[in-house]
Structure formats: structure tokens, C-alpha cells
Amino acid sequence: MKRTLQTRHLSMIALGGSIGTGMMIASGSAISTAGPGGALVAYSMMGIMVYFLMTSLGEMATYIPLTGSFATYCTKFVDPALGFAMGWNYWLNWVITIAVDAVTSGVIIQFWWPQFPEWIFSGFVLLVIFLINYLSVRSYGETEYWLSIIKVVTIIVFLIVGFMIIFGIMGGQGPIGLKNFHYKKAPFVGGFPSILTVFLVAGMSFQGTELVGITAGESATPEKSVPKAIHSTFWRILLFYILSIFVMACILPYTDKNLLSSNVQDVAMSPFTIVFKRAGLAAAASVMNAVILTAVISSANSGLYASTRMLFSQAREGYAWRGFGYVNKRGIPIYALLGTMAVSLAIYLLHFVSANAYNYLIDASGLSGFIAWLGIAMAHYRFRRAFVAQGHQLSELKYHATMFPFGPIFAFIFCMIVIVGQNIPAFIHLDWDNILITYMAVPIFLILFCYYKFRYKTHLLSLQEADLSRSSRGEKYITADGKEIK
């Protein structure tokens, strides 16, 4: 593996990974559900939880920067069965996401060319992201860097335009102020249950920030790049999300039907599009459609990178075919890339054959991101305790997580609340079909965990058994000039 990713790459990879269609189209639904105040509270709380998770991941990634990230940390510090299940859970999540993004890109392109066959453009997107990941890790980093910049610039322009509308400088309606914050039932609509519902939307929006842990294994200076990426990314994301929702809430009342838009086909009704239209941008829908297409391609690109590296790590840990752990001269785990691409392509083709089977696969990955976050919290709690128990000094750590042990404990509890609260009405009405669809990721994860645990008789590692060595099985890393990193 070649460590050639720079700090700017890691920052934009983590930032771009969590700015997508969920923010640009579906975030308005948070205001509609819980009101402007409830949406701001939910996103703020979720942002704080993600901050704790990312600092936990940062502490481990700077001390032991490995491609397998939290899955490998679960193997080393908690239980090999947990690492096995975490790795496959995360891989499954991303291979399905790649297929979904490919389908989505085909839908988006029809905004301009309604008669153009979706599958041709979807296939083109899959080919492009494969070539990007096939060339080198640096080509992936550079591509993601520029794709993320497009999204970030769009949000900055949206905020500037939005505040100009709020203060009456643009839009031709005079100052708007905060009147929507006390309109009808605002600022809080539906009480705590509505805020809990928005927690789920916010959690989905923030997912992708953990990519910085995957990229740490190929970062040129992980001890510097990872902490900087985590801190800068957190504040930017929190600022972007909170301010964007604030602007939407000021301009559109929570009762506005446009806030219910949640599909890429609703780009003309996206809160972003409406704000730009009020400012006089006639081509707002077309511009936002182009930005959303960029976001979808960025998501697929990151998904292929993350799933390839996770499959590579699974092979190195002995959890997958050993061939997936092979790396070519360019530092690319080529067989893991081909295997991941083949599965994603098969899932993509499945939506032509059986729409129901395709939708079930999507449902199966619904909670995978939150399960991965649980793994980060558990691994870090065990890592820090084992680090001290084995006689190490905290001064040896180049980066310290915030407020240990409160941080990982809070994140773990919060994630559990979000997972359990995904579909409480289904439990109240004993709607078993709905329960199965919503929580499908949980039994899949438990099956993987139990399979490995009972087959190999693994156990919770004691603090003295935890492996604090700064490498994984058979992994080697070299710098851009060809020197091996021990």
C-alpha cells in the first residue's frame, strides 16, 4: 500500500462523504417533521455525537493507521468475531450504495435528456469510478478532492444567497427575519418523538465521515493529517448543516410542501433550488441537478474505495479469500477492487430483474452505517483501557480523543437509541413486515458475528490480550519514494 494521500485529500474525502443528496434534497424534511427549532436541535446533537466518534477514531488511526480501520481495531481490541462482522457489514453497506448511486445517476441525467436510456449513463459512471480507483490511490484522492470542492462551493453560495434573501437584499420581498420560527406550532413541532425521527435523518446525512479512518492507512502523514481532517471536517459540516437548515427554515415555513422532497427527481422542489430561484437564478434547477449528479458520483467513488480497502483488510485478517489481499505495483488491491466491482454490478443489474429483491438489499444496508459507528465507540473504549493496562503512557499518543471515557460511551448509547428508534410505530402496531424491512441490517450483522464466534470459539479479549502492535497481518506500507514504513 502506498501512503500518498495528503491532508487536503483526507479533509475533502471526509467532508465530501457526508455532503450529498441527503443534505441538498432531503434535509428540508427535517424542518417539516420537527419544525425549525427541532431540526436545529437534532442536527446539533447528532453533530456532537459524530464529533466524539471521529475523535475516537482519530486517536486510534494516528497510533495505528491501518486500511481496515475500525473493523481491524475491533479485531485487535475487542473480539475477532466483532471485527469479522464489522468488516463484512461495512463492505456490504458500500457495495449496495455503489449500485444505488449508479441507478440514481441514470435517473438524474434524464432531467436534461428524458429519452436517454438510464442504463447507459449508469454504466458509464460505474466504468469511470472503476478506472479512477484502478489507476492509483492518489487519482482517487484528487478526484474526490475536486468533486467535494464543487459541493462545498455550492453550499457556501447557497448560504450567502440565503442570508441576502433573509435580510431583504435579494428576492424582492424585503427582510424576512425569524418570522417562520414562531409560525403556527413552530419552533418545535411534534415534541421529542419528532426530534427523535429527525435524529435518524441527521445520522444518515452525517454518515461518510468515518472514511477518514479508512484513508489513514494510505495517508502520507497520518499523525498530522487525520487529526486536522477530523477537526476541520467536523466544524465545517456542523456549520454547513446548521446554517443551511437555518436558512431553509427562515425562507420556507415548516408547512411548505416543498420541504417534503426527498428524491432526486424532486430537484425542482429542493429547498436549495427554491432559494436560488427566489434570488433570480433562472437556471437554478439545472444547476442544482448538476451539483447533485456530482454528489452522487462522489458517493459512488468513495464507496468503491472504502469497500475495496475493507475487503482487502478482511483478506489480510484471514476473513476472506487471500487473493483479495494482493496488492499490485501501484499499491492497488486489484483483486479486491475487481471483486467489489463485480458484486456492485450484479446488484445494479438485479434492479432490472427483480425490483423487490433489489429493494430488500437496499433495506439490508439501512442501519449498517450506525452499526459501524457502534464498532468505533466500542473499539476506542477498549483501546484506551488496554493502552493504560499494558503500561503505556498517554503521552505516547500523538492525538487524544475528547473527554474519554464519556465520548465513546455517549456515542455508543446515542447510536443504540437511534438504531432502536428507527421505526418505533412498527413495534407499537406489531407490523412485523415493516420491522423486518427497517431492521434487516441488525440480524444480518448478528448472524455474521455468531457464525464466526461459534465456529472459531472466540472470546472477549482481556485488556492484556489486546493487540497494540502498530500493524496488521501481513500489511506493508511504503511512501511515495518507495521507502517501507515499519
Your description of this structure?
By secondary structure, this protein is mainly alpha-helical. The chain is 67% helix and 1% strand. It is built from 19 helices and three strands. It has a three-stranded mixed sheet, with no helix packed on it. A hairpin with a 4-residue loop joins strand 2 (477-479) and strand 3. Helix 3 (28-63) runs antiparallel to helix 10, helix 6 crosses helix 7 and helix 7 (137-166) packs antiparallel against helix 12 (284-316). The longest helix is centred in the N-terminal third of the chain and has 36 residues, at 28-63. The two termini are 12 Å apart. 53% of the residues are buried. The mean pLDDT is 87.
Structural class: mainly alpha
Order of helices and strands: EHHHHHHHHHHHHHHHHHHHEE
As a percent range, the share of strand residues is: under 5%
Strand order of the largest sheet: 1-2-3
Global Rg? 22 Å
* Poorly predicted spans: none
Q: Look at the structure and give the mean pLDDT.
A: 87
Count of individual beta strands? 3
The number of helical runs is 19
Distance between the termini: 12 Å
Main beta-sheet annotation = 3 strands, mixed
Q: What helical percentage do the residues reach?
A: 55-70%
> Which shape, going by the Cα principal axes?
globular
Give me the secondary-structure topology.
Elements (H helix, E strand, L loop, with lengths): L1 E2 L3 H11 L3 H6 L1 H36 L5 H9 L2 H30 L8 H18 L1 H30 L24 H16 L4 H5 L6 H30 L19 H8 L5 H33 L17 H20 L1 H10 L3 H22 L16 H15 L3 H5 L3 H8 L1 H16 L20 E3 L4 E2 L1
Parallel strand pairs: 1-2
Antiparallel strand pairs: 2-3
Helix pairs in contact: 1-7, 1-10, 3-8, 3-10, 3-15, 3-16, 4-5, 4-15, 5-6, 5-12, 5-13, 5-15, 5-19, 6-7, 6-12, 6-13, 7-10, 7-11, 7-12, 11-12, 12-13, 13-14, 15-16
